[in-house]
Write a structure and sequence with these properties.
CATH architecture of the largest domain: Sandwich
Shape: globular
Structural class: alpha+beta
Distance between the termini: 60 Å
Strand order of the largest sheet: 1-12-11-6-7
Number of strands: 12
Strand content: 25-35%
CATH class of the largest domain: Mainly Beta
Radius of gyration: 21 Å
């Protein structure tokens, strides 16, 4: 009878330790490289998460909102190009303020590089902008259009060639101020 009680207690403790690890960095580590499945990536002192990435149709009701605020002189994609949106979330999980990066590049397997189009955030409330985040603060900030939007992330807009389909996977590189690679995320296309 005593051995049975010890066995039950040991099983209960093991189960408790296993459940206690849920939500812990040990159970869900942050990595510097992630697949497009919602993993968190540490890029310097900040944590980033890909909310979604996809081709955008500038003529659809939803997607037309994402291509507002283009720089003057920006042309529409040609027959061999398309808009591609990458929606990101970031969090400062430290106790000190840190600034999110605005330095990104998307690379295909052939080494072709695509840079985000600088959107005017006054005309496009979804546009990614570099922000100084206080401790535990997120980007997009709560109660913002991007926060409540369908993607719950802020937009990096790319104009890519349709040849990118042959050169998958695409990788988003999160870069520091000196162009050092801080983290990468594999993108769907």
């Amino acid at each position: 009878m005593r051995v049975r009680r010890l066995w039950i207690v040991a099983c209960a403790l093991t189960l408790g330790l296993g459940l206690g690890a849920c939500g812990d960095k040990v159970a869900h580590p942050h990595v510097a490289d992630a697949n497009n499945d919602g993993d968190y990536v540490d890029a310097g002192p900040l944590t980033y998460q890909l909310q979604i990435s996809r081709v955008l149709n500038q003529y659809s009701t939803e997607d037309s909102q994402y291509v507002k605020g283009l720089p003057a002189g920006t042309t529409a994609p040609t027959a061999s190009q398309q808009w591609y949106g990458v929606f990101l979330w970031a969090k400062n999980q430290t106790s000190k303020p840190h600034t999110t990066t605005d330095n990104f590049v998307m690379v295909d397997t052939e080494g072709n590089k695509y840079y985000p189009v600088k959107l005017n955030p006054d005309l496009n409330p979804y546009a990614w902008t570099s922000e100084t985040l206080a401790a535990q603060q997120t980007e997009p900030i709560p109660d913002s259009t991007a926060f409540y939007g369908p993607t719950q992330g802020q937009l990096l807009l790319f104009k890519i060639g349709t040849s990118a389909y042959a050169n998958r996977p695409l990788t988003l590189q999160i870069l520091g101020s000196s162009n050092q690679k801080l983290a990468t995320i594999s993108l769907d296309l």
